[in-house]
Amino acid sequence: xxxxxxxxxxxxxxxxxxxxxxxxxxxxxxxxxxxxxxxxxxxxxxxxxxxxxxxxxxxxxxxxxxxxxxxxxxxxxxxxxxxxxxxxxxxxxxxxxxxxxxxxxxxxxxxxxxxxxxxxxxxxxxxxxxxxxxxxxxxxxxxxxxxxxxxxxxxxxxxxxxxxxxxxxxxxxxxxxxxxxxxxxxxxxxxxxxxxxxxxxxxxxxxxxxxxxxxxxxxxxxxxxxxxxxxxxxxxxxxxxxxxxxxxxxxxxxxxxxxxxxxxxxxxxxxxxxxxxxxxxxxxxxxxxxxxxxxxxxxxxxxxxxxxxxxxxxxxxxxxxxxxxxxxxxxxxxxxxxxxxxx
Length: 343
Ligand code: 13P
Ligand code: SF4
Prior knowledge:
The protein is of the alpha/beta class. The protein folds into three domains: 3-89 and 302-326, NadA-like (Rossmann fold, 3-Layer(aba) Sandwich), CATH 3.40.50.10800; 93-209, Rossmann fold; 218-293, 3-Layer(aba) Sandwich (Rossmann fold), CATH 3.40.50. Helices cover 44% and strands 16% of the residues. The strands form three sheets. The chain has a five-stranded parallel beta sheet with strand order 6-5-7-9-8, sandwiched between helices. A four-stranded parallel beta sheet has the order 2-1-3-4, with helices on one face. α2 links the parallel β1 (21-26) and β2 (39-41). α1 runs parallel beside α14, α3 (43-52) runs parallel beside α4 (65-74) and α6 (125-133) packs across α15 (327-342). The longest helix has 16 residues, at 327-342.
């Protein structure tokens, strides 16, 4: 079946369902999937949308599993969340194991009781539930700074997980000195933290990372500066700190889009994030702004969704594609997500 025909069939089903069907598409999805989405967004916007559109009985999340789980946690009892490919996960989310996180929290709290967990939404529902239970908040790449500030205003220190780099970049944005940020390595006893570094730290970051964003290097930034000195460079905050600091700007996927749209005509923007978004921006800006990738980096999990498995889902609604977070987990996970949405 040709791609055009698939698109036409998807649209016909969307028309039948009207407002009772909501298709959400993350910015890293391929263009043919995004063309079928009702709403495009970064992970924060998609979570907000899932919480808002109560009339939609079926929510289809074209993204990765943690996004669909967040949608289910925030959805009402009349709503069911589906994924075109329920195996589209996020390796970074899997880097924070439930038992290891509990052990880390016990270590920190034994040293002093003044910690707030801040959990990146790129995490499992069970981890969000721990965060809610321990009085913490989730965050996304677009509001991490605000959530850190919320914790600091309460006189607390931040235990951030699972992305070391977003944690370090956010701490840096808030003017926190490098030696006040400690790394918790779950592979080492007590996370590899000694009493001195723990006492000094205002932020402890978990040793997790995104495979898609840690391929960007300071050398690549240097090469752009040499070959194209007029170009502006913007990167996602999941990039290592050396890259983030050499770039002209950093931001979530939506913030990168805004940056490009606000750029003056004739300029060149080099972007360090997943290549589907960069390619889409390059296409949209053709003839106005030159958009290039710092390096072509693909999120294979985002790429598991395509127009064929989207159509199959909409035709059959298989139970195996439903994403349902157990009620026992949902309650505390919702606390952590709702705290973020209220900030
Ligand atoms: P955003 O929060 O910018 O949408 O990023 C999601 C993500 O998975 C980045 O790797
Ligand atoms: Fe996970 Fe990275 Fe893919 Fe985002 S880009 S979904 S953090 S692997």
